[in-house]
Amino acid sequence: MNALLQELLPAAPPAPLPDAAPAAAPARPLLQVRGLSLEYASAGQVQRATHELSFDVLEGDRYVLLGASGCGKSSLLKAIGGFLPAAEGQILLDGRAVQGPGPDRVAVFQEFDQLPPWKTVLANVMFPLLASRRASQAEARERAWHWLAKVGLADFAQRYPHQLSGGMKARVAIARALAMGPRVLLMDEPFAALDALTRRRMQEELLQLWAQERFTLVFVTHSIEEALVLGNRVLLLSPHPGRVRAELDAERFDLHSQGSPEFQAQVQRIHQLLFSGVKR
Amino acid sequence: MSVIAFVPPRAEFVRELPPLPAHTRAHRLPLAQRLWQAAALRRGLMLALLAGLWELGARWADNDLLLPGFGQTALAFAQGLRSGELLQRAGISLALLLQGYALGVALSLALTALAVSTRLGRDLLATLTAMFNPLPAIALLPLALLWFGLGAKSLIFVLVHAVLWPLALNTLAGFQSVPETLRMAGRNYGLRGLRFVWQILVPSALPSVLSGLRIAWAFAWRTLVAAELFFGASSGGGGLGWYIFQNRNELLTDRVFAGLAMVILIGLLVETVVFNTVERLTVRRWGMLR
Lengths: 280, 290
Hints:
The structure holds two protein chains of two kinds. By secondary structure, chain A is α/β, with parallel strands linked by helices. Chain A is built from eight helices and ten strands. Helix content of chain A is 34%, strand content 23%. A six-stranded mixed sheet of chain A has the order 6-7-8-3-9-10, sandwiched between helices. Chain A has a four-stranded antiparallel sheet with strand order 2-1-4-5, covered by helices on one side. In chain A, strand 4 and strand 5 form a beta hairpin. The longest helix of chain A has 18 residues. Helices cover 72% and strands 0% of the residues of chain B. In chain B, 33% of the residues are buried.
């Protein structure tokens, strides 16, 4: 179906892509997090969300932040997005400190209300391109069609978000984010509100898109299986406050390895790491 | 504790699914049901029923001075329309109303824009609405007369007061209920300041803004008519309120009713034609309101 739609539609020039060669001597990581502590104030108290996190994301990574609730993974993603200021430490994108929200880091959230309901699907995908003044009207339209075709929603371009299913809304949000050609795509449990069958399909499609485009992805999830399937690198965060427990490789797992003994063993290991050995 | 029942083993089965018969596909409702779905028809019937009850009540009371019937009122209304007096009075009222309404809307948008951008602005708006929203606009009329004299300015002053607070209250509530993810999405794409207000907050809060505009319209209308009852003949012939007042003095009760009917009709017209159309084209189409 996707392939068919792509043939029917004029092929728009793809967004500027990062070079698909992370292995060829990465001089500098794309995203560096250095001693990052995040705090938030609630009810007159200052709570620590994360404590002195450090890690690197390379160009083309599918980098997963994994942890139970309360490990500050969403706060961390918001900080990378520039929505949350750092209490200590810093975040560097291409060597420059992140100062605030910007179109070089586009976020996809779990909530369906991230799509303005007053815009059609097409207008939704065009919206960030126009709002950030990155493209002219015609150019934005062309790019939006290109990406809508890629996620298989070209037939629904003139619909409004409330006429779409949850999975379709998630696809629109992904198309909208990728149309911007961001340096990093930030995803905050984007499939958590979907039913299990749709979630599985969305995971497949996201991996397909990545195989075609090789964007850099930072993905937050609380599902160990999803982390192993989607990521090539998994950062384990322990809760209260979030600290780095481990960084594991997940390149060898994909959607078809879910039943394998090795996969199950890795799930068990991660489970152990996350839920034991935290000294208080 | 429940008793664990013995569940007997059952054979599995798999079925081939044949195409469905025609009558199970989507089909149109019968005509009567479709007609009943039309809100205009239902409401028209309701109005006809009310008019019938009114006429019956009037015949039963049999007192033209106190309660003229629907027929007499309709006659007086038609006469008023033919002579042009009713329309002229309505025109005077509407012109004043629109001026006051527009000014009130502009002021309230300015206030709410201030309120969403600064905390002091928010405090200011919260305090002012808490003070002035419960105050009937008409209670300010004596003061307005003292300040602006007998004339259109005083009326516009009370109209602005009638529009400003309910609209500002609703708009602010709408702005505050904009989902956090939508705000973050807007900031993500580099929207700030007025562009953020205009491209994210206003459309997202449109259901509340529209309901505020509706309430403000009703408040303005009733305030105006009440104010005209006080003193209408100020600037070259009064509006509808004055028309009602004059005719009551002359004991032409059917004309009083005709004047009231005009007030109601204009209200209904704006409600159904203007506001409902705007709603249908925007928030209903976007699925933000059912």
